[in-house]
Amino acid sequence: MEVLSSVLGVLLAEPCRALFTFLRAKIKNPFYFNANLRALHKDIEDLMERRDEVNEHLEPAAKVGQTALPQVRQWLRRVERFESEPQVRCFRGELDLSARNRASSCCLHFSRLSNQVAYWLNEARRLRGDAKFLEGVAGPDPFPVRSEYIPAPTIDDQATASRNMAKVMNMLSREDMKRIGIWGMGGVGKTTLVKNINNKLTSPSHDSFSIIIWITVSNKTQETESELKKVQKLIADRLKLTLTEEAWRQGLMTEVTLKVEVLNEEEAWRLFYKSAGEVAILGDVEPLAKAITKECAGLPLAIVVVGASLKGKRMVELWKDALNALCRSEPLIRGRIEDKVYNPIKWSYDVLPNQCIKSCFLFCCLFPEDFKIDVDKLVMYWLAEGLLEGHQDIEEVMHRGMTIIEILQDCSLLEQDNRSAVKIHDVIRDVSVWISSSLEKECKSLVRSGIGLSQIREGELSAESYKRVSFMDNQIRELPNVVAECPTVSTLLLKLNKEMVEIPDQFLAAFTSLKILDLNDCYLIKSLPPCFDQLVELRALVLHYCKHLETLPPLGALAKLQVFACSESNIVTLPQGSSACTVETSNTLVHRMKEFKKFKLSIGFPSSNHFFLARESKKNEILWGIRVWGERMEWLFVNTTSINFHICEGLDIMFDKLVANSDEVGCFDTVQIIYIYSCTDWVGIRNNAKFDMLPNLEDISLFNLTRLSCISDLALPLGLKFSRLRCIYVESCDELKYLISLGTTILSLVKLETIQVYYCTQVEELLKFDQSSYPDSVFPNLKKIKLSNCPMLRLLSEENVACPCLENVYVQNCPF
C-alpha cells in the first residue's frame, strides 16, 4: 500500500501542480481585472509612444539613404499586428472600468474577459521589453532591391482593368513617355491598378527599369515638394519609374492621362459573386444580389465591401434590407460601409478648395439617381442660394458656375453627360446624401427625390433644421395642409410631381426663408396660394410646364427675385404690384417688373408676337419653341449679351432679314454668346452682310442642326470673322463635314481656346483651307480639344497647323 501511495504521489504531483496553477490563474485574473485593465491601458500607451519614437528616428535616416534594421522592421510589424487586434482596440477605447459590473451577470463571460486582458497585458509588456535596440534603429541597406511586391487584389478576371493595365504597360515601353496620369472617382480602382502594374514590373521578365519607387503623396503641398526633391537627389540618375499614389493636385503634371472607368454589368456581377460567395446565386437571393450589384453602379470598392458584408447571409430578409438601404442612399451596415466605401470617397469632397464649392456639390444630391442635371439650371440654383455672390451679370455668373463644375469634374465628383448637362454617379450621390443629411449642418438636406412617394409623412419636415428639401420626381398628389415652421429651409424642389393638384396656403407659409421654389412640370396646379407675397426672400421661381397654371398671386413684395421662368404655362393674367410698362396681346400679357433684379428670363409662347423683353436690360435671354420669322428681331440682338434659340422655327429666315436690314441697324456688338438647339428646319442664309454683324461673339454652340455642313455656312452670310471667338461647341450635327473653312473672311482664330465636337457622324476634318496661303499661327491660343463619337473623322487638318498653347486633347471613339 505504501508503495502504491508513493507511486500515485509521483504520478499525480505534476498534474496537480499544473491544475493548481491553472485554477490559480483563473481565480487571479478576475480578481485583478481592474488593475490589469489599468495596466493594459498604460502599457499600450507606452508601447505606442515607443513606436512613434522609433518612426521619428527612421524618418531622418531614410532621407540619407538608410533603412530600418531587420529586427526593427520585425518589431514594427508585430506592433502593427498587436494594434490592429479587435480585442486590443476594444480595450483601448470602448471598455471602461465598470466593465466588471456590466459583465458580472455572466460569470463565464467575465472570466473569459479577464483572461483576455491578462493575455494582452503580457503581450504588450513583451513588445515593450523587445524595443531596446541597442544597435540603433537604422543603418545602410545592405541589399538594395530594384522593386518591392505590394499585395493587391488581382485584376486578371476584370477585362476593363486588364485593358487599362495593358494600355499603361504599352505607354511605359515608349521612350518618349515621361509622365502618365491615372485618374477617376474614388473607389473606382486606381490604386489597385497601379499596384498590379508595380507587381507586374517586379517580375524578372520585366527589366526595363533599374528601380521602381512607390510614393504616397501627402496632401500637404510644402511637405510633398520638399520630400520629392530629397527623393530626386537621393536616387539621381537611377530613377526610372516612380509610382505615385493619390496624385491629388494638378501640380503633378502628366503628359498623358488614363481615366479608370467603372465596371460594366458583367464584370460587376462577377466581382460581387466573388466577394459574396455561393450564397449570391441561391434561388431567392440571386435577383436581390443582382439588384444590389446594380445599385453599386460598377464601383469596385462598393461592390467588394457590400458583397463581403453579405457573405454567408442566407436570410432573404437581410438581402432585402440591404437593397432598400442602398436605394435610400443610407449606409448599409453602420461603420463598415462608411469606413470602407463612404469615407474614401468623402476624401475627394474634403479636399475641395472651399466651403462654397462643397455646398455647390452637395446641391447635386437633391436630384434623383441617373438624372441629367441641366448646367444652366444648376448654376441658376447656386445663384439663387447666394453661392455665387459678388458677380454683376449673367456672364460672370455662368463663368464662375462653369469653373466650379470643371473643378467638380476634375475631382470625379461630377460627370459630363453632354454640353448642357452633368450627372452624378450613383454611389457618389449616396455619399453626398450621407454627408448632407448627417455631417454638414450648413447644407443639411432632406432628400426624398425619385423614390415613388405618394405623400409626405406628417412631421417629416419638422424633425430637423433642414436647409434644402427635395421631393422632386415622385407621385405626390396632395401636400400636408399644416406643417411645423421650417424657418431654415432655403430650397424647396417639388418639380416633376405631375399628379400634384394644389399647394396649400399653410404649407407654403411655413417656409419663411425660402429662396428657391421649383414647381417645374407640376402639370395640374392651377394657382398658387395667397401667402406667396410673404416669401420676401424668394430669388428663384420656376414654373416651366405648369400647363394649367392661369394666374399668379401678387409678386410685388418679391424684391429679391432674380430668376422667373414660366415657359409652357397658361398664364393669361399677371399679378398686381408690377410696374406700369406692359405689353398686351390677344391671349398673353407680360409685364416688365422693375422690382425684379433678373439675371435670366425664360418665356415661351407660340410666336414672337407674344414675346416681350425689358428693352433696357442686358442679360441672357432664352427663346423657347417660338416662330422667330414673323417680325423683325433686331431689338432682341440690341438688348442682349447671350441668346439661346431652343427649338425655334424659321431661324434662317430671321437671319436673312437681319442681313437684309444690316445697313439700317448696323452690327450687334452686345452679343457675346449664341446657343442654337435643335432648329431642324434650317436651310441656309441667302443674303451676305457687308461687315461683321457680331464682332464681339465669344462663344458659339450648335446642337442638332441636321442640315448644317460647316459653321462657315452660318458665319459667311453674317460676315463673321470670329476675331474674339473663344469657344466652339458642336454636337449631333449629322451633315457636318468640316468644322470651319478658313479663307477670305475667316483667316485665323487668334482668340480661340476650346474646340468641342461630339456625335457628328459625318465630320471628316476640323479645318479646311480654301486658299493655298494661310497665317503661320491659325490657333495661337488654342488650349483644349475634345472629340468624341465622330466615326468619320480622319484628321484635324490636311495642313500642318501649329498649336503652341495646347494643353489638353481628349479623343474618344474617333478613328484617326
Automatic annotation (TrEMBL):
InterPro entries: Apaf_helical (IPR042197), At4g27190-like_LRR (IPR057135), LRR_dom_sf (IPR032675), NB-ARC (IPR002182), P-loop_NTPase (IPR027417), Plant_NBS-LRR (IPR050905), WH-like_DNA-bd_sf (IPR036388), WHD_DRP (IPR058922)
Record-linked Pfam families: LRR_RPS2, NB-ARC, WHD_DRP
Stretches assigned to the NB-ARC domain: 164-242
Presence of the UniProt keyword Zinc-finger in the record: no
Disease resistance protein winged helix domain location: 366-431
Location of the Disease resistance protein At4g27190-like leucine-rich repeats domain: 708-814
One Gene Ontology biological process: defense response
UniProt keyword ATP-binding present: yes
Keyword annotations from UniProtKB, A to Z: ATP-binding, Leucine-rich repeat, Nucleotide-binding, Plant defense, Repeat
GO molecular function terms listed in the Swiss-Prot or TrEMBL record: ADP binding; ATP binding
Family: Belongs to the disease resistance NB-LRR family.
Listed name of the protein: Disease resistance protein
